[in-house]
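Sample 3 of the quickstart, ligand T4K:
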Amino acid sequence: MVKDSDLNELSTPLFLKPLHVGRPNVGNRDRFLKRVHEIFDQMWFTNGGILVQQFEKELTRYLGVKHCIPVCNATLGLEIAIRAIGMQAEVLVPSFTFVATPHSLAWQGITPVFCDVNPLTHNLDIRKIEKKITPRTTGIIGVHVWGNACEIEALTELAKRRNLHLIFDAAHAFGCSHQGKMIGNFGALEVFSFHATKFFNTFEGGAIATNNDDLAAKIRLMKNFGFSAMDQVIFPGTNGKMTEIAAAMGLTSLESINEFIACNKRNYDLYRQCLQSVPGIKVFEHPSEQRHNYQYVILEINEDEFKMNRDSLMEALHSQNVLARRYFFPGCHQMKPYQTNPSAHLEQTDALSSRVLSLPNGTSVNERDIRAIASFIRKCGKQRKNPTKEI
Ligand code: T4K
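Result:
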C-alpha cells in the first residue's frame, strides 16, 4: 500500500505503465480462441453466422427481452433505430453524452435539440425538457449515463402525452436494471454498445433491444441492406451486421460477465471508501437497489473545497501515468458541428462537464493501484500548488 508519506519520495511516476480508463476486460482466452478456430473451420465470417445467432439468443435471455439484435457498433445501431422508428426534423437529446448520440441524428439530417441535465443524476432533466418541444419535435433519446437509468416513467409519460417517440441510448447500461427489470426493456427500444472500452465488449459491437415484433423485423431488414430473401430487397437498408469474430468475443465475455461486474464493484467500493473523506471530492453514486455494472468511477471535483480544479488534477494524475479521462468534455453543444445550434445554453451541462473525471476501473486495476491513486488524489487536495512538482 502506498501512503501519503511515500509519495514525497517518489521520483518516478506512481505507475511505470499507463493505467487506462477503458481497458478492455477479456474472458477466457482459450475459449475465445477455440471459437475463432471454429470460425475458420466453418469459413463463415459474417452475415448472420451461427455465433451471431447464438449470441443473439444469449443476449435475449440475459436481458429478458423479446429481441436483442446484434449490430456492428452502437452508433450505427442508433442510426438504424432512429430511422426504423421514424424520427425526423428535431429530436431532444442530452448534451452530456458521447458525441455519437447527437451524431446519429445529425448524420441523417435530423436536428439534435440539446437539453440540460439534472446535476444529481447526470441524466436528462425532466423539468427542462418540455420547454424544448416544438411543432417539429418527433422524439426523445434518453441516455442512461454511467449505467444509471434515466427518469424512465416520467419520460414515458411525457412522450405519450406529447405524441413523441422515445428510445434510449443504453451504451453504458448493459447489465443494469431499473425497477427490477433489465435495461433493454424500456422505451420503444434501447441501444447498447459493446465497444472495447465498455466493461462488456465484442471488440466493436452493439445491440438493439426491443419488445416490439414489428420494429424488430424492420431493424433486421435495415441492418442487412433491406434483404428479405435472396435477391429480394424491400427496404433501403444499410450494413449494420455483427461479425462472427465479434460474436465469439461476445459469447466469451458473457461467460465472464459476473466476474467483470464483481471486479468493477469491488474496485468502485474501494475507491469510494478511500476517497470518502477527501474534501471537495465526491464519487458519483450508483443505485444500490438495482443491478449495476459499476463500470464508471466518476469523480466530481469541487474546486473551492479541493483547492485544485479538475484539469489540474487530471494533469497531475497523467504525470503519474494514471490516464484519467474527462468524460464528457465539452458538452456536445459546445462541439464544432453543434455550436450554432440554438439550444446551446446549458448551465448544468457546462458546470458538470468541467468538474467530472473518470478513473480507471475493470480487471486491469487492482486494490494496490486504487489505494495508490486515492492516496495521490488526497495528497493533491492538501497542496494548493501543482503537486507534481513536489512529489
Ligand atoms: N453513446 C454513448 C453514451 C457512448 O458512450 C458511446 C461510446 C456511444 C453511444 C457509441 O458507441 P460505439 O459506436 O462506440 O459502440 C471511447 C469509445 O470509442 C466509445 O465507444 C465510448 N462511447 C466513449 C465514451 O469512449 P474515445 O474517443 O474516448 O476512445 P479512446 O480511443 O480515446 O480510448 C479510451 C481509452 O480506452 C483510452 O484510455 C485507451 C483505452 N483503450 C481503448 C481501446 C480502443 C484500450 O485500453 N484498449 C482499446 O482497445 O471513445
